[in-house]
């Protein structure tokens, strides 16, 4: 299995998000390891390897702003662990401390049911480089780092730092200009309303039961990125989206992981511009359980993408710009599938003018209205505004607001300078009691198909307004 090894680092800096200062310093902008959540703030991690760069960083950031970390063990992988934005009442049901995590990693040996995964961390060499109540940076042996999500408390998430640093980027004015033009001219379009209202709610119910294994026929026990269930899901997603007229491929990004499913509808006009909408089809279950149905996280976003594809085929839609429907794997291990694809597109100098990720769109707490949550921090403001405005036109039943729940696969594209944002189920923190739990099924209290449907309409309408479209002539 490919390792994300970190070698020959001098120092690591954990710095509060400040794009202006990051871009002004080549020492930082050329040695970027990503954005990470720290409590209610966002930080960047950078490598500094020369005395000049160390001095430059000290000049730009005060001691109180910067956290300086020592060189991790050679050959290890770096893993950022963070507490998610979860409702306080839910968080108190499973308290967690860094020391308890450290002890569990040292002593754990677990074998997954049906031979789907094997985890042995008893001989793990590791080192905690940074620790707070809500975040940890740890150096681990590469194999353990890839599997640590299976032992994390469910309200914590892990992100594997890249094998090598990249260039720090922001979404430029030129990159966001196409979205601004759509915002300026956005009006209700009855043809778009007719298309998005054609999404089939019964089909959504059927699709999600296949992905969770609730239908009793798919045989899917788990869609964890290392399982055969994930491979079954990937092949099934590819087949169904291909039937709508897209060209699809399964793209591997790390040895041992299920692939990304990348489907493309080529433009009818001459253009390099591409719009991407996505979800992640991998899942995470309860500690010690082989079952990971992932109904809400993120069967909801994935079936939303499938419902859009089926409607494209049924309505015989042709796009004026290229449109990609993507379902990622490796999200639960730290956005690994989307990171690989976003980097690939950046290396190609691709023109991605809009990216919208759907992650967890179906859970609704009792007595709360249907909602649409938008990212507070990580994302392009113009894209977020476009989503909000489109929602008012085509799904006015949704109460729109901001959520601190962060971050899904849109972050990978945003970090590469592509305009990107996310749609989520709630204007506020996570409240789903089955979050990262083996009980995350669709047949349960709070799983709201109407909310999933309404949010899928918003994602689809955003594509239709941005890409432009026509209906194919009848045979």
Automatic annotation (TrEMBL):
For this UniProt entry, which residues form the secretion signal? 1-19
Per UniProt, what is one GO molecular function of this protein? metalloexopeptidase activity
InterPro entries (alphabetical): M28_fam, Peptidase_M28
Q: Which SUPFAM superfamilies match?
A: Zn-dependent exopeptidases
- Gene Ontology BP annotations: proteolysis
State the needed cofactors, names only.
Answer: Zn(2+)
Top-level lineage group:
Eukaryota
Could you say which EC number(s) this protein's record lists?
3.4.-.-
**Where does the record place the Peptidase M28 domain?**
260-444
Instruction: Report the transmembrane regions from the record.
Output: none
Top-rank EC class of the record's enzyme: hydrolase
Q: Which family does it belong to?
A: Belongs to the peptidase M28 family. M28B subfamily.
Q: What is the name listed in the Swiss-Prot or TrEMBL entry for this protein? A: Peptide hydrolase
